[in-house]
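=== Given protein ===
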Amino acid sequence: LMYSCLRSYRDILSLERSRKGLERILECSTQLQQKTYLKDFARGILEQISAVIAQDEDAFYAKNDGVAAFDNTGELKVIAGTGEFTECENRNAAEIIPKEFTDIINGKEIGFRSQMTQSGFVCVNRTNERHMGLLFLRDLKTRNELESSLLHMFCRNALTAFENISLRTLLEESQREIVYMLGDAVEHRSKETGLHLKRVAEIAYLLAQKLNLPKDEADAIREAAPLHDVGKISIPDEILNKPAKLNPQEWEIMKTHSQVGFDMLKTSDKPLLKMGAEIARDHHERWDGTGYPAGLAGKDISISGRIAAIADVFDALCSRRIYKAAWDMKSVEEYFQLQRGLHFDPSLVDILFENLDEFIDIQSRYKDPIA
């Protein structure tokens, strides 16, 4: 009877430890799901592993020196590191991880694999020949089979999520790159420099930040701003690159680029292109209602359009164009002061003046190459 009771008590404790371990996995997984950026997620995995295994010091030992890496180009790059590996981001993971793990890293087997030695713990999840996620924690040890099972369960799920976020990040980066390439093609056709796009994007982003827009909205404006003049692809070269002032007929043709840009992008259901369509349509509207294409006024103009209007004009005035030299900053300030409440949203002009040094710094950091 005594032995039976002791065994029952032992089993109850084992079940309780399993329950707590699973609770920790769910809790840590919930915290990780709140991280949307690849580096934050990777670092979160490393930081949460010690919480997943056990809270007792004698049950688990790790110095929290870890590496999370991802391979999608044929090279296993460190995405995030903790402890002594904090400064190793973007390095080749094979240079950092002990050589005894070479076989598991270089293996071609599809799926999840792990290995624990005296040097630490490594696990990899390979979904195909070009995609693999990896976690390495130095000096990690588990005390029993339960803790090992919890570790493997958590790492398998974490690496699967890591893979999904990595692929989503690659897709978003590809979208941003395509946006810049498309905008750059238009800029080169109009004999402007592609750095105009970068400056407009950064100026628009800074305005959005200073206006305290939500981070997601500010990021979207920054990423979509290079599409503001995409409609110029429809404008004939003799008008687009005319060094003299446009005549009334030519000006009417030039003004169509806002609507053309909107029409090009409006059918997309992708947030980045939808924001691009909004900016392309509204960045030539004026606060007093005399702009184009729709003659909108005040806050009827989208905030992204109002921001892009200031970013585009500020950079245009500060930069040399085919039809003019760059203005000095005093003249730029005078122009914006005169157009406050006419062309531009007065609150945004105030933000521009209050933080002028930061906007000038953007101009300095992304200077056009000397021809």
About this structure: Confidence is low (pLDDT under 50) at residues 54-63. The chain has two domains: 10-168, 190-365.
